[in-house]
Write the structure tokens for this entry.
Amino acid sequence: MGEFLVVPYVIRHEQLELRIAVSNIADLHLHEEVVPELLDALVWTIDSDGCLKHPVIVDDVSHVVLDGMHRVAALKRLGCIRCPVCIVDYGNPAITVGCWYRAIKGAKALRGVAAEVERLSFDVEQVRSIDEERIGVSPILAALKNLERLEVLMKKELVSLRFWPL
């Protein structure tokens, strides 16, 4: 396995150390597929900007990309051979794995979100209530239930619902 190139900057915290370095892209290991539309947009953005704005987060030992699959794929497509990385010790208990969900920009209402999800080839079903026994309880289900309650409250208050990009 390749070594990281010079480590010019270290950020120390009482529970965590982040090392900013440069790595050969060939030494990084991707573990997820990329979404083609997002990859195309990111290639265009990086090419237009002439730089990568955020380092890829990589495990120190395995060189597995923990965050930044699309960035690495975009750099490969652009013909780059090196990549800025933030090296972490994945075995450190301060590093936790969590769920995250991609933000859908520009959706002005729940119908806009549903249309975007359908555009990504997922099935969308409108229901009057969520059958937790059928689909289980997950963070996204909890978020949808809270959003449903928020929409009801907003209708009562006559306030419009807006989605803000993160």
About this structure: The chain has two domains: 9-88, 110-157. The two ends are 36 Å apart (CA to CA). Helices lie at 36-49, 69-77, 110-119, 132-135, 139-157. Residues 139-157 form the longest helix (19 residues).
